[in-house]
Amino acid sequence: MSLSNLIQNWNSFRTRRPYEGQYEEAPYKWAMVIDLDSCIGCNACTVACYAENNLPVIGKERFGKGQAMHWIRIERYWGADEAKATEFPERGAEYLPMLCQQCEAAPCEPVCPVGATHHSPDGLNTQVYNRCVGSRYCSANCPYKVRYFNWWNYPDQAWPNPLELQLNPDVTVRSKGVMEKCTFCVQRLRAGMDKAKTEGRILADGEVLTACAQA
Fold first, then answer.
1. How many CB atoms lie within 10 A of CB 114?
2. Mean pLDDT of 6-34
3. What residues does 73 pair with on adjacent strands?
4. Is 114 contained in some domain?
5. Does some domain include residue 2?
6. Which listed residue, 18, 42, 59, 212, has the most CB atoms within 10 A of its CB?
7. Using CA atoms, how far apart are residues 149 and 58, in angstroms rounded to an integer?
């Protein structure tokens, strides 16, 4: 098979979702619902995500340069009633937590030249850090702008000794030059699945919570 045919077949495979019977053989298909009417923009979910997934606090200067590292952010929108927004600013905004949407046919996946981002059998848009070459094509193709590039070697700067002891041992600490994103707290999902498998059953709905949902 020629290289062009191989690339064509590979790309068609990576972009053919969703298709009928996609999850028939998979025991799980993960999903999460966010009630926007209940969100008050407290940012507890953001803080929980930082703690759970070993995200570095990069500081105001780097954030201003577009080098943000948060996997979930709270966006604020104000409606047409400017008088109400001015009089009651805490009531005038609508809050929208923005994280990876785990797209069924994710536009970030087919543009990755090394297949570092791909779709898992249980419906997650995953990222393989040790395969990523930092091309940032996935970030350019993400309509929600929820992919983040490691510009610096954050572990040496964000957690000086002994602060590294606070890191979650179940989550790898990413290095400079790779893309990262919300993983849907896959470490919690896998731990719950392993426990359920040991007990000879499958996970019940709501048995495992992501860090943001728990907060």
1. 10
2. 73
3. 98
4. yes
5. no
6. 212
7. 12
Query: In which residue are the tokens 């999902």 written?
Result: 189
pLDDT at 120: 87
List alpha helices for the chain, DSSP H: 3-14, 44-52, 60-64, 82-87, 89-92, 137-141, 154-158, 186-198, 211-214
**Within a 10 A sphere around the Cβ of 155, how many other Cβ atoms?**
17
Which of 141, 170, 172 shows the shortest CA–CA distance to 155?
A: 172
CA distances for 144 relative to 14, 62, 111, 139, angstroms: 20, 21, 16, 9
Structural Rg of the chain based on CA atoms: 19
CATH code for the domain of 116 = 3.30.70.20
Q: Does residue 13 sit within a domain?
A: no
Q: How many domains, the chain?
A: 1
CA distance 61 to 187: 31
Is 64 within a domain?
Answer: yes
Output DSSP code: residue 152.
S
Q: What's the pLDDT score for residue 138?
A: 94
Would the pLDDT of 187 be above 90?
yes
- Helix, strand, coil percentages, rounded to 5, for the chain: 35, 10, 55
pLDDT digits (tens, 9 = 90+) for 36-60: 988 988 999 999 999 999 998 888 8
Global pTM value: 0.82
